[in-house]
Amino acid sequence: MMQVVAGLDVGGTKVAVRAETIDGRRLVDVELPAEDWSASPVADAADWLRTRLCRVLPRGSTLVALGVGAQGCDTQRHCLELTAALGAIGIHATVVNDAALLVPAAGLETGIGVVAGTGAIGVGQDASGDTLFAGGWGWVIGDEAGSAGIVRLATIAALTAHDDGKPDDGLLGALQRAFGVRKPEALARAVNDEPTTGNWGPRAPAVFAAADAGSALAVGVIGAAAEHLSTLVDRLRARGAVGSDIVAAGSVIIGQPRLADAFRARIAITQPSLKITFLTEPPVVGAIELARRAR
Question: What percent of the chain has pLDDT over 70?
Fold first, then answer.
């Protein structure tokens, strides 16, 4: 019977699944929709993860170890509880927040992971090995460097300037076009009537396009997003996060050079001793690494 290790990277919109033989031969490398994913209650979450694994693992294979990085596992206790719930259904697993996959995915033992994708969060470890989190509060009240958070901040900036009687510098128009409306009042309704990542997040490229076209407001929003990410790093370091590396990933920071450059510039000022790596491997590689370490 073939023995395999597997990794899952469970995000806000999709779950990446990778499985390999013990000697490193890749068997599965797929993405599935993350519909209805919730990290709580842990028994339901464990069953959700098992169901996805069963869909893709080769028939007759034996799962030796599983690494999971999951959105919503935002405390050490929650990660341990989900690990135990998976163990209760026969799956030997290591569970971390999805941002905690970045450091092992980069081949590092220690460091700070920073995600700017749908949401935004920072994750590190202290000297005793306990996981530390900063940010990741959700797009309604936080996650200023995630796609939805950027759209929220940009909408506030554009509508505030409109209320002040200032001419549109390009950001307001870009957002109106992105949401398919013609007036500022309609923009406010379009944003408020459906406060979801599915409505807000896909409009984020309009903010970056407005910045490229010369919008000072859009540039300011992107700068605020970069400052948010650097502040997450500052908070983790102040609480004892170890390592000399930052590993950054996520669709926004990888796909939008303006944010990556602004983040790099902020870290050069606030944490000049830290080296930044922008992850080119998918984070699920970190989940596989965790599974191998736990085997």
Answer: 100
